[in-house]
Design goal:
The chain has 115 residues and is an all-alpha fold. The chain has one domain. The protein contains three helices and no strands. Helix 1 packs antiparallel against helix 3. The longest helix is centred in the C-terminal third of the chain and has 48 residues. It starts with a helix and ends with a helix. The relative contact order is 0.15.
Length: 115
């Protein structure tokens, strides 16, 4: 019975951590979006040199290969992974809590049936 009392607090902590993970994911997505906008500005400013779509596409890929952009993509992937892992943890805790409640209900029903 004592075990069940800890779950609401554990779940709440895990949900708070999930919220932080989601905020981090949003920040990383915004950073990558900003870098994509910067790349598009560069391509637009070089439009006189870049004669066709193939050249613009090649330049875009070149700029996306730079360390800042690659780092932002990596950070976004890590933030997504952290969010996914925390979602799994929240669901695990909720499921454990549900199972414990069901077991306790069954025990109470058994005691009531005997009495």
């Amino acid at each position: 019975m004592e075990q069940i009392k800890k779950y609401p607090e554990l779940i709440a902590r895990a949900e708070k951590k999930l919220l932080l993970c989601e905020r981090q994911l949003e920040m990383e997505a915004e950073r990558l979006s900003f870098l994509n906008a910067e790349i598009e500005k560069v391509i637009f400013s070089e439009s006189r040199e870049l004669k066709n779509e193939q050249q613009r596409k090649a330049r875009r890929l070149e700029l996306q290969g730079e360390p800042d952009y690659m780092g932002a993509k990596r950070e976004l992937a890590q933030a997504r992974e952290a969010r996914d892992q925390q979602t799994i943890e929240v669901n695990r805790l909720r499921n454990e809590f549900s199972v414990i409640k069901l077991v306790l209900r069954r025990e109470i029903a058994g005691i009531e049936a005997v009495a």
